[in-house]
Design goal:
This protein is of the alpha/beta class and 397 residues long. It contains 15 helices and 12 strands. It binds ligand 3LM. The site of ligand 3LM has 18 residues, from helix 4 and helix 5.
Length: 397
């Protein structure tokens, strides 16, 4: 059954389903590295692309295809490619887009390892990245050149929650040259909250480790976009350049997690809004970055391009770094840990953890202050999350 025109919940549950010999409701895990050919000729035909069918799990696997089919349909893309991690997806997509001499324009506030890939990785192979603040569209106009191949950004940005206008950035880049690939990391939102392709972007990448899987037990990534690009990523980028293939078991867990994406995101967002409002009213908190607060700079753009303001909050306390750390160490319900999008509320310190790949000067340029604390609001009862923070913040007020 084609579910493309059904509602989001129906698509997340039913997209990608195929029949199996036992009639199992949940797709089997095809835990196999290779696939038998009926003959030498058939193997040759599959390698030549003259016949459809599986060859080897680095090139495709039925369980992985299920997760890919769901994500393509949910993001509104023609096709999707799963990868072994978010960084596997991002590196595969970028390696498949550039060659020595090309340029990438990226927002200056990015997940730490993406920043490192661009600044310390691709730069070694003759690919230069121009980092700029894409919230001012004049910066993009200045940075665009005949060498630009990709415009890359996250929104909301990890970890400052800066919101970028996807439609405006995509239009500006495409007006300059339609061939420029506008690539958006949609990890913080998932397709339930935001659909970059519908807003004019060409490619979406994700750390599927986060909300998409949603249970903190998988490292995975995905690229979504047009058939030609995904095919290039599959048959060259992932196959030959990175080899960052998702295992069938992790693909199974990802497809399983996706079935409840909408209800989890609704709860993450409802909890985050309550917690953000609590922080905003608390005297120990000097700054709250949450797209759902009218006081937050990115509020209007977020309201336009996101269904709900998300489950991530960043904040600063009226305390020095040591006192901030001491307070966080006293949390009992919430866990001090990197990563995000899990059932558990996770709290981390970007300057020393997720963004320690930035130098002190680079952190400052990216707007990531020394005292910034990032919270991935979980699915617990919101009163319990708030009580945990209240107990450690009250003594600071
Ligand atoms: C983190 N982030 O805690 P993986 N894109 C975004 C991300 O946030 C991440 C990736 C890509 C965190 C991971 S830090 C050691 C833990 C917006 C990951 C990369 O390769 O699946 O980890 O995704 O912010």
């Amino acid at each position: 059954m084609n579910v493309k025109n059904k509602g989001f919940a129906t698509r997340q549950i039913h997209a990608g389903k195929t029949e199996n010999s036992a009639g199992a409701l949940c797709a089997p895990i095809y835990q196999t590295s290779t696939f038998a050919f009926s003959s030498v000729e058939q193997g040759g035909a599959r390698f030549a692309g003259a016949e459809q069918g599986y060859i080897y799990s680095r090139l495709g696997n039925p369980t992985t295809n299920l997760a890919e089919a769901k994500l393509a349909v949910l993001e509104g893309g023609e096709d999707a490619l799963a990868a072994a991690s978010g960084m596997g997806a991002i590196s595969t997509a970028l390696w498949s887009s550039v060659a020595a001499g090309d340029e990438i324009i990226a927002d200056e506030t990015l997940y730490g390892c993406t920043y490192s890939l661009l600044e310390h990785g691709l730069s070694r192979f003759g690919v230069r990245t121009v980092f700029t603040d894409l919230s001012d569209i004049e910066n993009l106009k200045k940075a665009l050149s005949e060498k630009t191949r990709v415009v890359y950004f996250e929104t909301p940005c990890n970890p400052t929650m800066k919101v970028l206008d996807i439609a405006l950035i995509a239009k500006t880049a495409h007006d300059f040259h339609p061939g420029i690939r506008v690539m958006v990391d949609n990890t913080f939102c998932t397709p339930y909250l935001q659909q970059p392709l519908a807003l004019g972007a060409d490619t979406v990448v994700h750390s599927a480790t986060k909300y998409l899987n949603g249970h903190g037990d998988v490292i995975a990534g995905v690229i979504v976009g047009d058939k030609e690009f995904i095919n290039r990523c599959r048959t060259f980028g992932l196959k030959d350049l990175t080899g960052a293939v998702l295992s069938p078991f992790d693909a199974f867990l990802l497809a399983r997690g996706l079935k409840t994406l909408d209800i989890r995101m609704e709860r993450h967002c409802a909890n985050a809004r309550k917690l953000a409002e609590f922080f905003e009213a608390h005297p120990a908190v000097s700054k709250v970055c949450y797209p759902g607060l009218a006081s937050f700079e990115g509020h209007e753009i977020a309201a336009r391009q996101m269904r709900l303001p998300g489950g991530m909050i960043s904040l600063e306390l009226n305390a020095d770094r040591a006192a901030t750390a001491a307070a966080l160490n006293k949390l009992e319900l919430c866990t001090v840990a990197v990563s995000l999008g899990d059932a558990e509320t996770l709290v981390e310190h970007p300057a020393t953890m997720t963004h320690s790949t930035y130098s002190a000067g680079e952190l400052k340029a990216a707007g990531i202050s020394e005292g910034l604390v990032r919270i991935s609001v979980g699915l617990e009862d919101p009163e319990d999350i708030i009580a945990d923070f209240k107990a450690v913040l009250d003594p600071l007020a």
